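Trying the structure run again after the queue cleared.
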Amino acid sequence: MKKTLLFTIALIAVGCAVSDSVSRDGGARTTGRLVIAGGGLQADNSAVYQSIVDARAGDGPLCVVPTASSDPEASMERAVATLTGYGGVGSVKGILISTENPSQAQDPSVVAEVRTCSGFFFTGGSQSRIVDVFLPGGDTTEAYRALWQQWQEGAVVSGSSAGAAMMSRVMIAGGSSADAVTHGVRLPDGDGVHIREGMGFFELGMLDQHFLARGRIGRILVSTLQENSPQIGLGIDENTALVVDGDSAWVVGASGVVVVDGRSVQRTGPSRGLGLRMSLVGAGDLLDLRTLSVQRERTKNPMPVTETSIELPEDPFARWVFLHLMVDLASSSIQEATFALSEANLRVLEDEGFSASMAGPTGGIEGTPAGFSAGPFKVDLLQGSAGN
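Done. Tokens:
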């Protein structure tokens, strides 16, 4: 019988059922692929970069768009150089559309350039800069129309960090996990998690990035608990990407993607609820976007249970802590971890049908098992004694 650990926050993780129903070749693709990278993308990550280069449509260049960056020219030059190393000389070019000159998004010569692209890569920075330039005040620019048309005709749309976050229709634009759990959803100049419109390429749910590295589980839980927001959230970790092809997706790179499903949650108050489900989809795993079922990479082995206790951290939102928490739960006889924060109680527990797998006991990010996958977890975020 597994013990229950109590701590000072109540955190509950949510998961996806594991099945064999997903195929990378399933279903006809009517748009280009999305390659959604979680930031911290290393130049030697061939799995991610090759996924971008291989998804191009036609003979045109792969176009780097540095709109999110505070130094767009330098950001564009770095990305062009890295992608050229995978695509070959002449295969990549930059299109300098930036907040410094937002009128470029209406410039006919720039729009004509966009129409030549076989794919797009959006650099990191601030996702709000991308939306403010391409969809100022919610209005569509000619560059956005051209970008959308190219994607509809098969061009890949890819991006890292801010270039990933901007892809969802409803976008997480800022705020820490601690602020989200304490204050809920905020206006642009307040505390809490900031949610606004995105670019609309990924319609299933909200996307977040730098996810496990920066402890962003709290802000995606709060975001999915909003009645008027998408009830599904996907958190993509650093140096990792989710490749989306129609209704199918798969994970490539160094870490994994956390899928949070709030469609069956029981709301108990503003930004609070019981019964979120969560899974970590590891590298090599397939995700069916219609059902959120996961097919784990066939060569992975079950995670052995080797421990009878775990040591809970003080801050579940600190860097990499939530990843280690999932590994600890999967490798021990402990099934539940509960934290009590001043404003909320967070509980994470293994849900019915829980299992964990790995490609190897070492070699994963931050000293974790390679190819680590786990779920489903159940997550509850409840009101704390000093809550709002």
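The two ends are 36 Å apart (CA to CA). Worth checking whether this holds up in the mutant runs.
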